[in-house]
Amino acid sequence: MPASRVREMAYIAHLTLVGNEPMITLKCTRKLLDLLGGVTTEEAPPPTGALGDWYATVTTTVAGELIVFANERTLLSVAVPAAMVDALVPAFAARVYNLLVTIGVPEDMARRESEELREVEFAKTSSRSVLGSLNQIILHYQLKAEGSLGSGPPVLSEAEVALSKTLHGPLDHVHPADIAKDLLAKRYGQAD
Predict the structure, then answer these.
(1) Most exposed of 53, 87, 91, 115 (fewest Cβ within 10 Å)?
(2) Contact indicator for 187, 100 with CB cutoff of 8 Å
C-alpha cells in the first residue's frame, strides 16, 4: 500500500477521535447539493482554517464519478470518489492533509489545518471566478482519468500534486502550493 494511502487512512481514523465544531463552509454546486440532500446554510460562519472555504462539485470521468474540491483562496484541489459520499467530510480532510504533506507542508501544520476541516457547513456557490477555475480543474481530472485508461484507475494524488503546481490567472500566475504554504506559515508559524 502506498505511503500516501496509509497516511490518509491513519488521518481518517484520527478524525473520529477529535471533537466536532463547524470550521469551514463547502460551497457546493447544485448538482453536488442534490447528491448530498440539498441542505444548506443561509449564513455561513467565517472559516477558521488558514486556507478558508472550499468549493466542490461532482463530475463524471471515464474512471467514475468524482467529487472535486477547490480551495477558495489558493485553488489547491483534491478529489474524492463519489462512492465515498457517505464519508465525504473525513475523506476530504484526509485528502487535504495528504496533499499538504506531499507538497512540503510540515506534518504538524498539515494536521492542524486538516483538523479545521473536521466538520463543515454546506452552502451554495457564490464566486463565478472560483467556479470558472473549478471547471478548469475538473478538466484536468477528466484528462488524467482518460490518460490512465488501460493502466488501472487514475492516482488522485498525482493529479492533486500536478494541479498544486499549475498556474492560474486569478492567482496572478502563482502556484497554488506556494500560496497555501504562505498562508499556513502566517497562521501556524514558520516551519522549523
Answers:
(1) 87
(2) no
3 state SS of 66: strand
Q: What pLDDT digit, counting tens, does each position of 115-143 carry?
A: 999 888 999 999 999 999 999 999 999 99
**What single-letter DSSP state applies at residue 103?**
T
C-beta separation of 79 from 159 below 8 A: yes
Sorted by sequence, the CB contacts under 8 Å of residue 123 that are 6+ apart come out as 25, 26, 27, 28, 40, 41, 42, 44
Among 2, 9, 20, 14, which Cα is nearest to 116's? Answer: 20
What's the first-to-final CA gap in the chain, in angstroms?
29
Contact 168, 133 (CB under 8 A): yes
